[in-house]
Amino acid sequence: MKFRDSPELQQRLAGEYVLGTLRGAARARFQGWMRADASVRRVVDEWQGRLAPMAEAVAPVAPPRRVWEAIESRIAASRIATGVAPVRAGLWESLAFWRNLALLASGAAAALLGAVMLSAPAPQQPAPPPQIVRVPADVMPPSYVVVLSDPKTQKPVMMLSAMRKSDQLLVKRLDDSIVVPDKSLELWALPTGQPPKSLGLVAMEDKQMLKLSAAADQSLGAIPALAVSLEPKGGSPTGSPTGPVLYSGPCIMYW
Amino acid sequence: MEAAPAEQLSALLAACARRDRDAFARLYRASSAKLFGVALRILRRDDWAEEVLQESYVNIWNHAQDYRAGLSAPMTWMTSIVRNRCLDWLRRPSREVSDPDGVLVENTEADGPGPLDLLSRSSDARALAECLGRLEDRQRQAIMLAFFDGLSHSELAAHLRQPLGTVKTWVRRGLARLKVCLEPAK
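^ Those are the sequences you sent over. The predicted structure of the assembly is below.
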């Protein structure tokens, strides 16, 4: 590749990346090179060392108190989650752990629902009776839906959906700040009473189609939850999750 | 607010890596005004700058163990996190900062050597200020507008009323000269 063979080009792009003039697709492409190549990261670090001192000339502005409060509450949430994170490899392979995680994932969703219901204001008038809508079979929405969220922030980060008879799993990224240099994100089905089963690697794209081993009814029908773990580049070398679980969520069939 | 000394910030980051929440609070108190200033200058919207600052500190807390004191100064490391977040934020298509009144260019022109005079606290900053001072005026202006105000090549071209290619050349040559100028100091 031209970029790799040209130290001048690397220097120029790294300088423009750090300065901030490299934008759009060029910036994204350069970030890909950084993830893939430690020598590019080194060149970037050097440029950061050169240019960042300029920030000393920026006038400080005290941020409003709510910023710190928001940071603190996010850190507090992550502390609960990091109680799980530095677990030894043995535990990651244990079924009980993954089963509990699946339970936790659906429990968290239930707790969230409970919180929403409790905090809803008292209705001023009786709720209208439910309306039953009959949807023709050909316009049915995807019937397996999974929302994976980050337990640290409680924010949903990915939404997955599949039609019952299809083996295409649509992965939609909800948070485009998910970036893992030098690593891969691997998606796992967490079947009850069995080891996690890899569904493939998550691409760093807004939308991705993952091919399931069989139609969703067969491959997801009995799966209570999915999770994403952090793995070495290219995916888990062992066929089981080896890194920390970053995101998880219950797998729901709603049609 | 004066920035805290580098050794103190390094020690606080090391304590954050050990999950010391008090150290994190002290780190925030010692650095947030400077970093909020950086974000605000680039994003020019309070709500965006607050959001980016919040994400940046969560990031700093989560990655404190990755900070290597020998490789970069603590403020350099944290500033890079904030600036990258700002630039990634601007990448989303619906978010373009506008400068309808041309305040930006006027300020930068009126600033003249002003911001450079402020670059005297650390030896790194002094060396950088000296090298920036040796650039051609237009190279320096393009580089400072890009760094402080987060302008892209095309935004620079629009603000400086110059063809895109000309502005790109100023930036490229300016950066190359800065690198050479800063070399002996390293």
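Helices of chain A lie at 2-5, 7-19, 24-36, 38-51, 65-82, 89-93, 95-119, 216-219. Chain A touches chain B at residues 11-12, 15-16, 18-21, 23-24, 27-28, 45, 48-64, 66-68, 70-71, 74-75, 78-79, 82, 152-153, 176-177 (CB under 8 Å).

Shout if you want it in another format.
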